[in-house]
Amino acid sequence: MTEKEKRDRGQLYIPGRDQDLHGEITRAKDLCHEYNLIRPSDTEKKTELIRRILGKMGENCLFVSPFWCDYGYNIEVGDHFFANHNCVILDGAKVTFGDYVYLGPDCGFYTAGHPLDVRSRNQDLEYAYPITVGDNVWIGGGVKVMPGVTIGSNTVIGGGSVVVSDIPAGVVAAGNPCRVIRRLDSEEIEVPDTLMGNPGKPEGEAGAAMLARMNKTHGPVTEWALSFMDPTGADRLLDIGCGGGATIERLAKLAPQARITGLDHSPISVQESKEFNQALIDEGRVEVLEASVEELPFEDNTFDRITTVESFYFWPAPQENLKEVRRVLKPGGRFFLIADIYGKAGLDQTTLENIDLYDLFNPSKEEFLILFRNAGFIAVKIHVKDGTDWICVEGIK
Question: Can you give the CATH number for the domain in which 263 is found?
Fold first, then answer.
């Protein structure tokens, strides 16, 4: 029996004796090293490489560099997975994560262990027992999970915990060793529609529910920001990332003489926006298209005004995407980037956690100025509202 076969049966084995294992570990370490050197903004390259490293990976997953593992192929990750900086997975055995799992920084998952008997241990013997994490699990920063542990779905593990035995579903657990502190009630276990709906690219019934809510919650900041827009003489308006369609309706009221185009890369957003604005579509005043800000399906110098509300956080290549927006804006036209937070001191803890959770791109006022100027806008105005974290960045072509 080879050392690899012993490992896979949960028996004691010596990895250094097996050339196959040595080659697999070297490959994984080389790929991790390469992954960790990729620029954070090059998301396409990072996604492509992490898929080569892992055995299985769902949609909308992110490992923030640096990330290290032993083999890679023993790691299986569900949809909507997030691992913050310095995640280490020693995957001699299977390490399986469900959907909507979030890991704080400096987390470790260690399937590998060594015998307590010193004579056996000094022979370089070790073992590997699988680790399983269910759906909808939040694991705080600095948590270490030991060989053979299962963490149930809908559970929260407090930061700094050392998990040495199974943790049931639907609980808060913490400590060293990690123990159940309390059970979560049904309302706490229910997954928020923002998580299920995927704010970066809404999908499914949860996405539709999230969009309906955002039509209302984004209303105040949008109304405030649109007060800076003078629609006089504007015949063509574009809303990028039109979401649930409420901004399109507001633009139609603000500029009754204009034709308005809504655009989103999410099919469910396009569907919801069309339903929300069906009367305006029937009048021929509105159209809603499925497309991405990466490649806008319009000729140069098409629009007098362009808006985007609460979507810039998720743009795949912000600097290049701003250049694309400017391309389709008419000379003298104005672009309004609207958001209810921006990079500044004093953001509350919940907001900071959400920025981390959803990997939001959240520039400061100074960074917005640089981004817009580098995109070629001849003038940039920054509007902020006192007593809030709201921002409206106005770029003029």
Answer: 3.40.50.150
